[in-house]
Amino acid sequence: MPRKLKAAKQTISKQITEYEFMAEPALKSALGYWLDWLKHERRAADNTVSSYARDIEGFLRFLSGHLGFAPGVKDLEYLKPADFRAFLAAEVNSGKSKTTIARKMSTLRTLFRYFDRNAVLSNSAIGAVRTPRIPKSIPKALSVEEALEMVSSADVFATEPWVGKRDRALLMLLYGCGLRIGEALGLNVGDFPSNQEAQEAMTVTGKGNKQRVVPILPAVSKAVAQYVKSSPFPMKPTSPLFLGVRGGRLSSGVAQATVRNLRGFLGLPDTATPHALRHSFATHLLSGGGDLRTIQELLGHASLSTTQRYTDVDEARLQAVYNRTHPRARRRT
Fold it and tell me: Is 278 part of the annotated catalytic residue set?
């Protein structure tokens, strides 16, 4: 089992155990069933389940101090809107960002909906509490030149030639196919088409275990084939596609460190992350005339509103070009 996945599982187990000190046994048991439901029914990733567990752990710690005792099922059922607002106030006073607070409230709403559906408890008070409004953010995409430069320079810090080919193939997948870093690192050799002569497609498993078909550009296929051929480890169909230097599945931490080194070398901003290559994939498709529905399918977004954020990126880019080049715009500055 990969170290990161094992650590995530240990974190979840540890947090369930810690509920014993912050919740009565019946509530602790119900929370354990909820986390198990998230993992096996909702098919949430281990890191997501661990994040939910941390959010609830923080809420229970607050309640223990707020109520003066470790809460039970009935105590959660009798919570008033004022109790949830007190939690929000405590989070604000501790310096938490609006995004973090909104995420924690979303976790609580998910938990209380689960409890209601499964007849554990029913409390509508949380519905009367308004979640902090999150400032609208625009995905931070790279320019075409920056994205291509990052991909072509992927092997700069490689300790061995095959590692350089691996890093280039990985970044090519992120930018050329719009994959999430977790989706790319979760691929096995058999998931990737072996015929690099034809433009093919592959099936990618994304969030919620949902699958989508993603076309593969010949350049991406060629980069992956060159990496696989150069690997010093056996590359069986069931083997991880991207390997670490010891032969195990490449961790996201190593991939992210590679990108951090690259952006420093290339003078790119801190927003130049592996996920920025996915943003760049979508933004550049839209700029080239791609339609939102197609881009939504390629990215695996459940909602079109998520994909529509990229129209804001394109509008912002057009405005920047206008301000920089139009005579009347230049005259005002």
Answer: yes
Q: Is 4 marked active-site?
A: no
Backbone angles phi, psi at 130, to 5 degrees: -85, 130
- Catalytic, 301? Answer yes
Whether 279 sits among the annotated catalytic residues: the reply is no
Catalytic entry in 96, 212, 222, 275: 275
* pLDDT at 224 (0 to 100): 93
CATH number 1.10.443.10 is the correct assignment for the domain at 144-324: yes
Local confidence band at 333 (pLDDT 50, 70, 90 cut-offs): very low
Q: What are the extents of the domains in the chain? A: 3-128, 144-324
Count Cα atoms within 13 angstroms, Cβ side, for 112: 20
CB 206 within 8 A of CB 300: yes
Under 8 Å between Cβ of 144 and 284: yes
User: Is residue 189 over pLDDT 80?
Assistant: yes
Phi, psi dihedrals of residue 265, rounded to the nearest 5°: -65, -40
Query: 113 catalytic, yes or no?
Result: no
**Residue 246 in this model has a pLDDT that exceeds 80:** yes
Integer Cα distance of 312 and 321 in angstroms = 14
Establish how many alpha carbons lie within 13 A of residue 60's alpha carbon, considering only the half-sphere containing its beta carbon: 23
pTM above 0.70, yes or no: no
